[in-house]
Amino acid sequence: MKSLSNLLDNKISVAKIVNSHGVHGEVKIVPFTNVKDVITNLEEVLLYNISTRNFFFSKVLQVKPLNKFFVLSLRGIKDMDEAKKMIGYEVFIDKKDLPSLKSDEYYWYEILDSEVYYEDGEYVGKVEEIIQTGANDVISIKNVEDDKEVLIPMTDHYIVELKKEDKIIIVKKIEWYENGTNQKD
C-alpha cells in the first residue's frame, strides 16, 4: 500500500483552488507558474489539501483563462457546493509532464529551498519565496541564523550561476545591501 508521501513522489504542485466559479461545479485556481501551457494542458491531476491531508484523483475536462486565474471543470465535481469543498486543494501533476525548458530557464520548484551564496563564498541563506514583479522574478532569501531577508532579482546581472540540480545559486551582492542598511545611497 502506498503512503501519502509516495503519492506525491515526482509530483509538483502547479496551482491552488481558491474559489468556486459559477453553479456548475467549476473551480477557480491560481497558478504557481507563469508557463501557461502547464495549466492549459492539464489532464490527469492529483488534488491534495495540505491542511486536511485529503486527496483524490480527477480528470480535467476543461480549462478556461480568467484574468490572472484559470477556471477548471473537473470530473466528479458537479455543482457549486462540491466546488466550494475543493477550496484549498492544490493541483499536482507528474514532473515528467512539465514542458521542457531551455538551459537558462527554470521552474520555481527547482529553485525554492536552494542555498544561496555570494560570489566570495559568503552564505546568504535559503530561497523561501519567489516574487513576480512583472519585469523579472525576485527571490526572497532567508538566513535563519541572523533572521535577515535578502531580495535578489533573477536577472543575468545578479545571478552568477544557477545550479538547479544541486540547488545552489551564486549571486552578486546588491550595492545597497553591502553597507548593511538596505537603503540606497
TrEMBL record:
<feature type="domain" description="PRC-barrel">
    <location>
        <begin position="104"/>
        <end position="174"/>
    </location>
</feature>
<comment type="similarity">
    <text>Belongs to the RimM family.</text>
</comment>
<dbReference type="GO" id="GO:0042274">
    <property type="term" value="P:ribosomal small subunit biogenesis"/>
</dbReference>
<keyword id="KW-0963">Cytoplasm</keyword>
<dbReference type="Pfam" id="PF01782">
    <property type="entry name" value="RimM"/>
</dbReference>
<dbReference type="InterPro" id="IPR027275">
    <property type="entry name" value="PRC-brl_dom"/>
</dbReference>
<feature type="domain" description="RimM N-terminal">
    <location>
        <begin position="14"/>
        <end position="96"/>
    </location>
</feature>
<keyword id="KW-0690">Ribosome biogenesis</keyword>
<dbReference type="GO" id="GO:0043022">
    <property type="term" value="F:ribosome binding"/>
</dbReference>
<dbReference type="InterPro" id="IPR036976">
    <property type="entry name" value="RimM_N_sf"/>
</dbReference>
<comment type="function">
    <text>An accessory protein needed during the final step in the assembly of 30S ribosomal subunit, possibly for assembly of the head region. Essential for efficient processing of 16S rRNA. May be needed both before and after RbfA during the maturation of 16S rRNA. It has affinity for free ribosomal 30S subunits but not for 70S ribosomes.</text>
</comment>
<dbReference type="GO" id="GO:0006364">
    <property type="term" value="P:rRNA processing"/>
</dbReference>
<comment type="subunit">
    <text>Binds ribosomal protein uS19.</text>
</comment>
<dbReference type="GO" id="GO:0005840">
    <property type="term" value="C:ribosome"/>
</dbReference>
<dbReference type="InterPro" id="IPR011961">
    <property type="entry name" value="RimM"/>
</dbReference>
<dbReference type="InterPro" id="IPR002676">
    <property type="entry name" value="RimM_N"/>
</dbReference>
<keyword id="KW-0698">rRNA processing</keyword>
<protein>
    <recommendedName>
        <fullName>Ribosome maturation factor RimM</fullName>
    </recommendedName>
</protein>
<keyword id="KW-0143">Chaperone</keyword>
<dbReference type="InterPro" id="IPR009000">
    <property type="entry name" value="Transl_B-barrel_sf"/>
</dbReference>
<dbReference type="Pfam" id="PF05239">
    <property type="entry name" value="PRC"/>
</dbReference>
<dbReference type="InterPro" id="IPR011033">
    <property type="entry name" value="PRC_barrel-like_sf"/>
</dbReference>
<dbReference type="GO" id="GO:0005737">
    <property type="term" value="C:cytoplasm"/>
</dbReference>
